[in-house]
Amino acid sequence: MSLEHKLRKLDDLFGSYKAEWLNERIFRFFAEPSYFNALKSYRPCVLIGGRGTGKTTVLRGLSYQGQFALNHDDINQFDKNQFIGIYFRCDTNHVHAFQGKGVSKEKWIEIFAHYFNLILTSEILYFIDWHKKKTDSDEVLDSHACRLIATSLHLEEKVVGFESLLEELEFAMYKFQADVNNIADGNMPQLSLAGDPVKIVAEQAQKLAQFKGKIFYLLIDEYENLLDEQQQVVNTLLKHTPSSYTFKIGVREMGWRIHYTLNPQELVNDPADYVRFNIVEMFTGDTSDQFESFARDVCQLRIKNLMEEEKLDYNIEDALVDMTMEEEALLLGVERHRYYLEVIDMEKQMNINLDISSLYKFFLSYWAHAQGEILGDVIKDFRLNRSSWNTRYDNYKYSLLFKIKSGRGSGGIQKYYSGWRTFVKLANGNIRYLMELVYRSYYLYLQENGDLDKPVPPKVQTNAAYKVGWKNLTELEGTWKNGAQLTRLVQSIGTIFGHMAKLGRVAPEVDQFEIEDSMTSRTEELLSAGVMNLALVRLSTNKQTGNSSVKEFMYMLHPIFAPYFTYSYRRKRKMMINNSEFLECVDHQKEAVASILKKKNINMESEKAIPMQLSFDFIEDND
């Protein structure tokens, strides 16, 4: 297979990260996440996760088209399911048409409810027609059922059977669109009661022999695109679901803004009204092994497809080779650093052999400089209290890797980000990000004429991680109306964390922040948008207030940005900033970064150290 063919095939397998781009190919590479079967219940479910966490893939996997494909296009196997999934994506262009034009908000709510009825009723009827074409033995909706459905939607009286119902419904959809587009001229459409036609068509379908005992899953994707009052409409239906259908909703974190029905006093609660599935929470922390297992299945399925010969023993953990911290230190040139050389000189002067790694020796000298102690005294104390020093070294050794190549003129890779486990942590429960990391690693590796049967070197993986971080940073501007502000925020916070990692002599691995005073509405909006668009990760924390605790939040940049700014992706320590400093990171980046770092006793080496404009220099190891 030529290099061009390999790269094209790699792009075909990995390059299209979005489920929307894959069309029907999405099911060829479908891997069930650990929570997939839990979604197959009669209870309404809300699937929460940022873009790229797999919401669309899962919802489409539950749809009747997905289930048919996953059952190898076998209608008999498909019919063993006790559910029928009807997928609908909330298209921004469509749902945002229901506002303004001199029409009251209350009337728009009624119009949107009718639109929702039309869409879901149509999709259920299309499914019935689809199933009928797959098997000759299907019963069909009788004329009474068809007229009942038509009447509930105010269709023409000429509906006498299933075919005419489908035809009239198609005409009704186009007429409705025309009425809404010209509603300012008084073209008010006839409206149906929220949910009633959907309930009727689902119940009539359940009377057919082929669908007896089955329930319809209404799979609503990109729920965050709905206007607030539109979320109220769907919340009302979710709160009062009949036995014939239930909801499975996909929404970005912070995107479900309204948690009450059309009656503001009626809240929609978990677990009383629905089951909440937060993908990142399920895939990180104590249950991160679930994400790792799922991600391994997703990636290995694709890489095996790339190989010219079937490799049953292919293991992505072996392919994305990792290093110990001590091995990485050697690769970074720790034995050329003056801290290491100082310890070597002391060993000679004291006529001893400490019998420790090169990174450990670097640490002893680093500690002496940081604490203002004499190196000889530090070494003596180490020899007397080796156990306590080992604990201290374990706490610091990862952070030391950022300091080996931290001075001026330190070109090339300043910290490696390699290994399957590292990529899993950088992705933070986001399958799209993990696929990007694997894809970019193999793309660069193949460009260097790498052998697919051999591991991808750490340098290549690190370059890939750097580029993926840069790519996602540059894309932030297009994710939100004020996306440029998110980009500047990430630049500033990332620069601060990067310099603290390299030059700070404070507690190691500071990579989180908390706002210590009252937040303005602008700050709250930025934080919410940052979480929704994967610029930030929100972490809960309990603040003690007397005899009770109040749940508050601290934040970190999404770990995918860590390789670009060169700091730790691990959740360790936080810094406190105030509301004013947070906003200054957006409005006056240079001044804010310099001021915050000065409070940490870190002076900027130059103004160029603060990236006011995004740059993307390929990393080249000059060693």
Automatic annotation (TrEMBL):
UniProt cross-references to Pfam families, sorted A to Z: ORC-CDC6-like
Top-level lineage group: Bacteria
Name assigned to this protein: Uncharacterized protein
Source organism per UniProt: Segatella copri
